[in-house]
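Summary for the steering committee. One of the milestones for this cycle was to obtain a three-dimensional model of the protein with protoporphyrin IX containing FE bound, which we needed before selecting residues for the alanine scan. The sequence and ligand used are listed below.
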Amino acid sequence: MKDSTSHYGKISRFNHWVGGLIVIAMLAVGLYFNDMPRGEEKLYWLRMHISFGGLFFIFLLFRVFWRVVATSPQPVEQAQALQMATKLVHWVLLITVLIMAVSGPLLIWTRGSGINVFEWFTIPSPMGKMPELHEWCETIHAITAKVLLVALIVHVLAALKHQLIDKDNLMARMIKRLR
Ligand code: HEM
Ligand code: HEM
């Protein structure tokens, strides 16, 4: 289940792929509705984003927490500069996901609303209206999304480089248990 110095355990692999899917979906929907004019369609996608965010933000927080407490496998052999770049991009991804999962709920709670999850249940605001913090959260959520997008593009290109050019089987250690 757990990681060792040579492999990613089941929990980390589950977190990576399920968390990755959620992050990509949240990013795609957020960027999609953001440029729309006000109206029913924008509201529809915003509600989708909020509902999925309400369902998954605790999982995203857990995903980051698990990476921090779990032993990471040793990096694959490559030039030291590339190893440092890999570490940097992984940490940027983790920190931006953490910021998104905190600033998203906060930006709703600080305008005094609860997080409505598909009209199924609402996570009530633990705080009153805080307009100044609300503005901050909106700005942070928007800027961090762009940093996350850039890091994600670099990350996926690097994974493709390992798979197609280096052919070092790096992808396999995130897919199955390797010794
Ligand atoms: C098609 C999409 C993706 C592919 C092909 C991919 C591929 C990989 C691979 C092969 C590794 C192992 C690297 C190593 O062992 O050094 C890895 C690690 C990692 N990936 Fe991705 N990834 C994808 C999406 C994402 C997304 C959306 C995130 C955003 C949260 C992400 C965050 C990370 C992080 C933080 C690590 C370091 C190990 C960990 O904490 O799980 N990846 N990825
Ligand atoms: C990794 C997770 C997340 C990503 C990648 C993401 C991405 C985005 C993006 C790209 C936007 C458009 C921002 C802009 O340029 O103005 C946005 C807006 C928004 N997001 Fe997220 N988001 C995430 C998590 C959440 C969560 C957990 C919630 C709440 C439950 C949330 C609630 C909102 C709201 C309410 C807006 C509209 C903000 C406004 O009115 O300006 N997001 N998100």
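Key point for the committee: The chain has one domain: 10-175.
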